[in-house]
Amino acid sequence: MTLDPKPPERPKGVVLPGGTPGSALRGIVLPPGADAPAEPEPGTPPAAAPRLVVPPGAAGEIPDDLPEYPSLRPLEMQVARANGREVLVLSDPLGVSPQPVAISLEALPMLQLFDGSTPLNDLCAMMVRETGDLRSSTILRQFVAQLDGLLLLESERFRKTLDELRRGYHALEFRQAAHAGLSYPDAAEPLAKELDRHFAKAERWREEAGEAAARDGAVPRALVAPHIDVRRGGPTFARAYLELGASPEGPLRFVILGTGHQLVEAYYALTRKHFETPFGPARCDTEFVDALAARLGDAAYEHELIHRDEHSIEFQALYLKRRLGDRPFTIVPILFGGFHALVEAGRTPRDEPAIERFIAALREVSAQARGATCFVAGVDLSHVGARFGDGGTLDDARLKEVEAFDRQALEAARRGDADGWFQAIAETGDATRVCGFGPLYALLRALEPGEGRLLRYEQSLEASGSMVSFAALAWS
C-alpha cells in the first residue's frame, strides 16, 4: 500500500441529505457556448418537453466504439436556470465523471431513450422518422459520443475508467476528510469548539431528562447516531456519544455501519483505510476488516469507491475523536445500502442471500475479535416535503404524523427487533424515505442487542419547507 495519504484532489460539490439544495452546481462543465446555470429553485420539477428537440451536435469525428445499446448510468439530475432558460444538470454520485455536466433541458426525452433496451442504430432510425431530418442520425451519434466521453453511459470506456479508479483507491492507506471545510471546520481548534458546544447541549438534554451520566469505563454494546449535516444534527450526534464513559478501559473498536447513499447495486462496501480528521486519523482495525473480507470474497471491496465521498462514517469519526481524545480506538468502516428493491418486490432481508452472508460473517468475526467492540449505525429517519418529491403542505399535523411513524419504527429498534424495524418501514412502502433503513437492520441482526434506550428524537426543518428526522439510541 502507498504511504501517501493524499489522493488527487477532486472537485467538491456533494449534496448531503439535509444539506443545501443546489450546492452540487459548483464546477459545472458546460457544452461549448452554454451559459453557467444559476442555483436551482428547490422543488422545481423538470419542464415538460412539448416535442423532441435534438441538441446541437459536436464537430469532429464520431468514434467507432460507441455503445451498441446506449444506457445512461445512475445519475443525480437537477434543473437549473441559466439566463432565462433551463438546463439539466447531471452529476455522477460515484465521481467517475468528475464534474457535473449541464445539457439543454430539451434533451431530456432523448436521455430517456438511453435505457439500454434499444440498439443505437434503431434509435437513429427513429430520430430520422421523428424529425424528418437525415442529419438527426449523425447528431444523435455525436450526442452519444459526448455522453460516453464524459463517462455518463454504461460502456467499455466507463468500465475501464472505473476499474482504474477502484484499483488506485484501494491502494491508498488513508481516506481523506472529504467534507472538512464544507460541513465542518477543517482545523482542529474551531472544530473542537463547535463539537464542544454540541456536547454541552447534549449534556443539558441528558440532565433535563433525568438520565444518569455514563460511568467512566462505560462502553455501550451499540449506538445509533444521525448522519445528517453536523450543523443541523450535531447535538444529537453528541447525545449518542455521551454514552461512552469519559475514561473507557483499554483499546476500543467501533464497527461503524454507515449509510451507503450510493450503494445501488450491492448491499455493503468495506474499506481498510484510516479515516483522516482534523484531530488526526481514526485508525482502521485492518485485521478485523481483512477477516471480514476473507469471508465475503470479491464483493467486499467491489464498491469501495463510494467511501471516497460518503459522509455517514466520516461524521461519526469526528465525534469519536473528540469524545475519546488521545485514548486508543480503532474503527471498522462499513457502508450498508438500502432496501428499496426488497420492499418493491415484497421480500425481506432474510430472503436475500448476500445480506445473510454478510450478517453471518460479521457475527463470526466479531465473536472472534479480541477487545471491547461497540457497534454504531449512522441513521437518519424520515425525509419529507417538497425537496423529496412530496406534494401538499408540511404542516404541524403532517409533522406529528411522521413523528408517530418514526417512533413506532424506533420502538421496534429499541427492543432489538430487526424484523419489526424492517416491517414497520416496509409496510408503508418506505413512504417517508427512511435513510438508514439498512444499517440499523444490519446492526440489530448482527448483534441482537436486546432492550435499548431512545436518547433523543429530533425533526430538522428546512427553509424550503421540507424536513429530515433523526435520533440517538443506545444499548448497554
Please supply descriptive tags for the structure shown above.
single chain, 476 residues, alpha/beta, 8-stranded mixed sheet, 3-stranded antiparallel sheet, 13 helices, 13 strands, 34% helix, globular, disordered N terminus
What is this entry, summarized?
34% of the residues lie in helices and 16% in strands. The chain is α/β, with parallel strands linked by helices and 476 residues long.
Characterise this structure:
It is a single chain. By secondary structure, the chain is α/β, with parallel strands linked by helices. The chain is built from 13 helices and 13 strands. A hairpin with a 2-residue loop joins strand 1 and strand 2. Helix 7 packs antiparallel against helix 10 and helix 11 runs antiparallel to helix 12.
In terms of topology, how is this protein built?
Blueprint: E1 76-82, E2 85-91, E3 101-104, H1 108-113, H2 120-131, H3 135-149, H4 156-170, E4 174-175, H5 188-208, E5 222-225, H6 230-241, E6 252-259, E7 268-270, E8 274-275, H7 286-296, H8 314-324, E9 329-336, H9 340-345, H10 353-368, E10 372-378, E11 380-384, H11 396-414, H12 418-426, H13 437-447, E12 453-461, E13 467-475
Parallel strand pairs: 4-8, 5-10, 6-9, 6-10
Antiparallel strand pairs: 1-2, 2-3, 5-13, 7-9, 11-13, 12-13
Number of helices: 13
Strand runs, count? 13
What value does the Rg take, in angstroms? 24 Å
Structural class: alpha/beta
The termini sit apart by 37 Å
% residues in beta strands: 15-25%
The major β-sheet equals:
8 strands, mixed
Rounded average pLDDT: 87
| Contiguous runs where pLDDT drops below 50 for at least 5 residues | 1-59
| Portion of residues within helices | 25-40%
Order of helices and strands: EEEHHHHEHEHEEEHHEHHEEHHHEE
Shape, per Cα inertia axes: globular
